[in-house]
Amino acid sequence: MTDHYKESNELIVLAAPISNYYKKFKKQIISFQIEYAKKILASKDDVIILANKSNMSTYSESLGKNRVLDFPMHDIWMRDFTITNPHKPIMFRYTAAGQGVSKNAQKLADNTQYQFLKLANKSKLSFIKTDLLNDGGNLVDNYYGDAILSKKFLVDNKLNISQATKKLLALGFDRVAFIEPDEPYGLQHSDGIVSFINKDNVIINTYQDRRYTTKLKSDISNALPNVNISEIVTSHCESTTYDKNFGSAFGLYVNMLVTNNNIYLPQYDIDTDMIAISQMEKITTKNIIPINCAEISKLGGSVRCMSLQLKGENRDKLMTLAEKSL
Fold this sequence. Notes:
By secondary structure, this protein is an alpha/beta fold. The chain has helices at residues 26-42, 56-63, 78-81, 105-123, 152-157, 161-170, 210-223, 272-283, 312-324; strands spanning 11-15, 46-51, 68-70, 90-93, 128-133, 140-141, 146-150, 175-179, 194-198, 201-205, 228-232, 257-258, 262-267, 287-292, 308-310.
C-alpha cells in the first residue's frame, strides 16, 4: 500500500487578511503568517501566501516574491472554503455558519468559496465537487479513506447517519465516523476535537466531562476499529473569544497541521505548551514544529484552520502559477 504521508512535501497555502472584519488584527495576522511560513519553509514543506497588491511587498520582503501570489481571498480560514484532503481533494459547499449569523450568510459563504474556485480554475487544480454542505474544518481524515466529522454535517444536510455515510462513501471514503460536537453553538468542527497524525493514530482533546470522552472514543472506535486513540492536554479558554459567533481556539493543541514529515503544533504561551510537545513526541516520530497561536486563536481558529494543504500535481500547478506571475 502506498504511504500517502511520504509521497512528497506539501504546499501550505495561506490567505492574507483582506476583509474589513480583520482590520483591527491585520498586523497581528500578517506577522503570524510570516513567522508560520518561515517555519514551514525551514521544515522542508512549501508555502504560498495569497495576497493583494497592497500587502504583497510585506510578505515578499520576508519570504521571497515566488512565495506570494496576487490572488486575494475573502477570508483567512483557508481550511473551510477550499478543498479537503490533499491526496483525494473534494470541495464541499461552504456553510453559512462560517460567515456568522446574518441573513445573507450563505450568500457570503458562496461568494467566499467562489473566489477560491476562480483560483482553482485558473491554476487547473483537480478535485471532486459536491453540493453537500460542509466546512473543511469539519472533516478530519487520514489520507487512507477514514474520515471523522461532527454531527453538524447531518444537520446541515438533513441526513441521518446511514444516508450521510452512503453519500460520503460515494465520494471515495471507505469508513466514516460521526462524533458529537463538543460545543452547543458555533462552527462545531471536528478538527477542534480530533486529529489524525498518521493512518492508524488519532489524537483527541482531554475533556473534564469524561462521559463525553467515553462517547467520543466509542463513536470513533465503532466506525474505525483498530485506530489508536490518544489524549492530548487541553487548556481551552472561551473567555478569550473575540467574536461571540465563533468559539475561541485558545488552548486547543488538537488543531495541529499534519504533513508528510511534520506536525505544526499550536502553542499559546501557557504552561501546558511543553506538556503538549512532550506528549506528541511520545506518540509520533514526525518533527514537532511549535507555532505560536496565542493571539490568532482568539479569532476562532488555529494552525490547521488557516491552512490549505496541496500535494502532487495540485501543489505543482499552484506553485507554477505563482512563478509565472512574477
